[in-house]
Amino acid sequence: MRGDVITSRSNALVKHVRAVRDGKVTEQIFIEGMRLSEEIVISQRYRAALAVEDVLYTENFTRNERAADLINSLSGTSRRTTVVAEDVFVSISDTKSPQGVIVLAQRPRTDMETFEQRIDGAQLIDPAPLVVMLHRINNPANAGAMLRVAEAAGATGIIATDGTIDLFSPKALRGAMGSSFRLPLWIGTTFDEALSWCVQRAINTVSTDGRAAEAHTDIDWTKPCAVVLGAEADGLSPDELKATNARLSIPMRAPVESLNVAVALGIVLYEAARQRALAT
Predict the structure, then answer these.
(1) pLDDT higher than 50, residue 1
(2) Last residue of a domain, one of 106, 130, 164
(3) For the chain, does the N or the C end have fewer beta carbons within 10 angstroms?
(4) Which residue has the higher pLDDT, 126 or 101?
(5) From CA 160, how far away is CA 186, in angstroms rounded?
């Protein structure tokens, strides 16, 4: 150690940060970068504000006013704020070009009970929930982008089955760019349990299927709905498609046969947003 600056890669805190980054400590999440760290501060305005535990940054990071203000804001709510030497920071970073700030926060609660509480709160504003169900989505960048477009289009919450990538992995968090901190999330349920939950709540389940006769514009999105999407490569199985209330396809010109799953979700959700805006 040199003063209050961590200079050793063998430091206990540094080792802990690496373990969180690599998913070996599941009670915390690893957040890196200026923009994503600023989203933590923004999330304080929401009911699902993150509990910040550690803030690590380099001396070079605070040389501009924006960065200095960010560290001041985070330090006010964090358990500990630590300066780290540049070479040590590189060893814990998850990016090729580290910006100089990492935050460890408690993993938010993503159980069914917490999800229901937040969904019920949202229904006081919008009585017709619009839920997104991710089933076996395995690309973290896609998963993050799907959360981001879901929040942007006004989705009420996200259900992620136990076959889906961790939505709080570093890459998924970067793709979501703050949406993971604000959207109600239910993570780790089964496909059947998620569908049963929708049935109990009279939520119409609509799956994406390139062979479906109905287009995404044919669905009545003004009712309570859940959009169900399967894995990037294979989508939903025939039995899973049959288990949903309706199936939709997105018209495409030949020879294109499929779209990126996050792009497809965006098209569907913005059609839902269009219909809902016209209905108000």
Answers:
(1) no
(2) 106
(3) C
(4) 101
(5) 6
The reply to whether 60 and 143 lie within a common domain is no
Say if strands 101-106 and 130-134 run parallel, antiparallel, or are unpaired.
Answer: unpaired
Residue 141's φ and ψ, nearest 5 degrees, are: -65, -40
Total number of domains constituting the chain = 2
**Closest residue by Cα to residue 54 from 17, 7, 107, 89:** 17
Closest CA to 64 of 72, 75, 56: 72
Q: Are strands 101-106 and 28-32 parallel, antiparallel or unpaired?
A: antiparallel
Long-range own/partner contacts, residues 121-128 (CB < 8 A, 24 or more apart): 121/47, 122/156, 122/157, 122/184, 123/156, 126/154, 126/156, 128/222, 128/223, 128/224, 128/225, 128/276
CATH number of the domain where residue 252 is located: 3.40.1280.10
**Boundaries of domain holding 209:** 112-279
Report percent pLDDT > 90 for the chain: 90
Residue 36, both tokens: 């994503």
Please give the single-letter amino acid code of residue 158: I
Q: For residues 138 and 141, what is the distance between their CA atoms, to the nearest angstrom?
A: 9
Q: Of 71, 106, 141, which residue sits at a domain end?
A: 106
Query: 48 pLDDT exceeds 80?
Result: no
30 lies in the same domain as 132: no
